[in-house]
Amino acid sequence: MRPVEIDGFVTFTLAILLLFIGKGLTARIGWLRRYSVPEPVVGGMFCAAVVCLLYYGFDVRVDFTLEARDTLLLYFFAAIGLNSDVKMLGHGGKALVVLIVLASSFMFLQNLVGMAVAGAFGMDARAGLMVGSISLTGGVGTTMAWTPHFVEQLGIAGAGEIGLAANMIGMIAACVIGGPVAGYLMRRHRLQPSHDAGLEIGALHEDEFSKRIDYHGVLLAMLWLNLTLMLGHGVSALIASTGLNLPQFVGCLMAGIALRTMGNLFRPNGGRLWNWQSMQPGVALISDVSLGIFLTMALMGLQLWVLQPMLGFIGTAMVLQILLVIVFTVLVVFRWMGRDYEAAVVCAGFGGISLGSTATAIANMSAVTREYGNAPRAFIVVPLVCGFFIDLVNALVIGSMAG
C-alpha cells in the first residue's frame, strides 16, 4: 500500500474545487435538485468515491490533512449564534421543548435496535450502542469519548472502529434522506412554501441579497465572528471545568447568542462597531461558505474501506436505523412539530440530529429553504437541540444502558 499525504493547504484548496464541482453537478442533474441534495455532499462524496477507487484499484491510500475543517465548523456555529435573536425563542419555545422530547425518545429506540442487532449477530448486546446513539446522535466526538469504556471496562473489542464506521454511514445517509423527506412531506400534505426569501443561512445566491454586502459590513462580520470564537473558547473551557464533555462548537454557539443579545440590548440602533443590519449579510456569507467547505472536507475525508471487516453487522444495523429515522420523522416528528412548512424543514434536519451531525442537519435544511423559502424558527430550534440539549441527554441515556 503506497500512502499519499495531502497537506492542509492543498486539502483546503481541493475542498473549494470540490464544492464548485458539487454546485456544477447539482445544476446539471435534475434529481439532485429535486431531492434537495446539498451541493457539498455531491462534491465531497465524489472525492470519497475516487479515493476509494484508488485504494482498491491502484493500491494507493490517500490521507487528507483536515485541520481547517474544525475551525470552519466553529465559524459556522459562531454565525448561527450571532444570527439567533433571543426574542425568537419566545416564538419557538414550545417547538424547542417538543423537539427535545422527540429526539430524546428516539435515542432509546435507536439504542434498542442496535442492541437487538448485536444480539442477533452473537455479540455483546451493549456493542449495539456503538451503532446507536453513541455514533449516530453523538457523532465522532462522543464515539471516541466512550470507546475506552467499551474496550477496557466492557471488553468489547473493536468498539471504536464499529462506532466510526456507523458514523460514516449515518452521516452519508443523513445527507441523502433530508431533502427527499422534506420534499415528500411538501407534496403529500400540499404545504405552502414560505414567501420570505430573505434567508440568513444559505441564501447568498440571490442577487438582491448579495447587493446588500459591502466592505464595512463584511469587516464588521469578521471582527464579531472572531470575537465570538474567542469568547466561545472561554465558554467551552468553563463547561469542561464542570465535568461535562460537550463539543467545542457549543461554546461558540452560546457565545454568539450572548453577543447578539448584548448588542441588541446596548446598541439597538447600531453604532460604529455594532451594526447588525450592516454586518448580517457578511455573517451569512461567511456562514454559508464555512458550512459548504466544512461539509465537503468532512465527506472527502471518509475512508470507506474501513467498513469491509464489519460489513454484515454494521450494514444490517444501519439499514434498520435509517428506516427507523425515516418512519419516525414522517409519522411522528412532522405531526408533533406542527404539520406545516416549518415542520417539514425541521424534518429535513432530523436526519442530521439522529444520524449525522449538526452541520449535516443545517446543510439539509439550507438546501430545502434555498428552494422553498425561509424557516427562521427551524434554524433556531434545531441547532439548540443538536448542539446542547441532545449531548446532555445522550450522556445520561448511554450511561444508563451501557451499565
Q: Could you give the topology of this structure?
A:
Layout: E1 2-6, H1 8-28, H2 30-34, H3 39-58, E2 60-64, H4 67-83, H5 86-120, H6 139-153, H7 159-188, H8 207-210, H9 215-241, H10 248-266, H11 276-300, H12 311-336, H13 341-354, H14 358-372, H15 376-402
Parallel strand pairs: 1-2
Helix pairs in contact: 1-3, 1-11, 3-11, 4-9, 4-10, 4-11, 5-12, 5-15, 6-7, 7-12, 7-13, 7-14, 9-10, 9-11, 12-13, 13-14, 13-15, 14-15
What is the mean predicted local confidence, pLDDT?
A: 85
SS content category: mainly alpha
Tell me the count of domains.
Answer: 1
Radius of gyration equals 21 Å
Tell me roughly what share of residues is in helical segments.
over 70%
Distance between the termini: 40 Å
CATH overall fold name: Na+/H+ antiporter like fold
- Write the H/E string, N to C: EHHHEHHHHHHHHHHHH
CATH class: Mainly Alpha
**Uncertain ranges:** 202-209
Overall body shape: globular
Main β sheet profile: 2 strands, parallel
Number of strands: 2
Helical segment tally? 15
Biggest sheet strand order reads 1-2
GO molecular function, one term: glutamate:sodium symporter activity
Function: Catalyzes the sodium-dependent transport of glutamate.
InterPro entries: GltS
Keywords: Amino-acid transport, Cell inner membrane, Cell membrane, Ion transport, Membrane, Sodium, Sodium transport, Symport, Transmembrane, Transmembrane helix, Transport
